[in-house]
Amino acid sequence: MNLETKRLKLRATMPEDKSDIFEYRSDRETNRYQGWIPKSPDDVDVFFSRLSAEPNIPDSWFQMMLVDKESGLIIGDLGMHFSDDLKQAEIGCTLNKTYQGKGFATEALTRVVDYLFNNLEKHRVFASVHPENTSSIKLLGRLGFRKEAHFVESFYANEKWEDDLIYAILEREW
Ligand SMILES: CC(C)(COP(=O)(O)OP(=O)(O)OC[C@H]1O[C@@H](n2cnc3c(N)ncnc32)[C@H](O)[C@@H]1OP(=O)(O)O)[C@@H](O)C(=O)NCCC(=O)NCCS
Q1: Which residues form the domain of 151?
Q2: What does the pLDDT read at residue 172?
Q3: Ligand 1 pocket check: which of 106, 109, 110, 142 to mutate, most ligand atoms within 8 Å of Cβ?
Q4: CB 63 near ligand 1, within 6 Å
Q5: Is 143 in the pocket of ligand 1 (CB under 6 A)?
Q6: Three-state SS for 2?
Q7: Ligand 1 contacts CB of residue 94 (under 6 A)
Q8: CA distance 147 to 94
Q9: Whole-angstrom Cα distance, residue 106 to residue 109?
Q10: Angle between helix 41-49 and 18-25 (nearest 10)
Q11: Which of 87, 88, 162, 167 is deepest in the core (most CB within 10 A)?
């Protein structure tokens, strides 16, 4: 499955992407609010083994790479999780820090949310965000997501309990 925006190509993640993914996902500072930070390239293989090869499979993550059309370089990735009944999807996005602050995440997620609502006919799309992850909260605000919940110490990551915010948007609001 491939998608396109003005500046980006979005394509399914492949085993060859391992070193790129490791390079920007292992950056502990940039990814301090992420539940998964690979410690070695082998950790990326474990991540790959949990992904579905195609989108829209019940209770599975499908992952896409964001490729800059101009340079052909991978600038980040984007994941979507499909609910058991396939009526809802969760999304998440990670950019290599070199490519943050340029509107790429907004551009990629706008295309993907559009695909989820208009092609896959989802009812609701949501994201789970750490309360201090201001870049991510701003990103979801730009996309029109509403803050729905603040769960207190509901998420165990990196050896501590963390709060978790839920942002969501319905098909009729898109
Ligand atoms: C979350 C994350 C993807 C957001 O990235 P981002 O670069 O802030 O978001 P965008 O790519 O949409 O860029 C928007 C910024 O670029 C600016 N910008 C510059 N050129 C732009 C352009 N041509 N078009 C749009 N925006 C542009 C915007 O003004 C905005 O800046 P601001 O945040 O200072 O207001 C990024 O912070 C990240 O990868 N974090 C680590 C992983 C993580 O925590 N992910 C969240 C898990 S869901």
Answers
A1: 2-173
A2: 98
A3: 106
A4: no
A5: no
A6: strand
A7: yes
A8: 20
A9: 5
A10: 110
A11: 167
For position 156, what pLDDT does the model report? 87
Can you give the pLDDT at residue 81? 98
> What are the average pLDDT values for consecutive 10-residue runs of the chain, which has 174 residues?
97 95 94 90 91 96 98 97 98 97 98 98 98 97 98 89 97 98
CA of 100, closest atom in ligand 1 = 7
DSSP per residue over 77-95, as a string? EEEEEE-TTSSEEEEEEEE
Q: What DSSP character marks residue 145?
A: P
Q: What is the pLDDT of residue 158?
A: 74
0.85 cut: is pTM over it? Answer: yes
- Cβ-contact 80, 67 below 8 angstroms: no
Here the CATH number for the domain that contains residue 165 is 3.40.630.30
Residue 63's φ and ψ, nearest 5 degrees, are -120, 135
Enter the tokens of residue 150: 């603040």
pLDDT of residue 56: 97
Coil, strand, or helix at residue 113? helix
Our count of domains for the chain comes to 1
DSSP state of 37: -
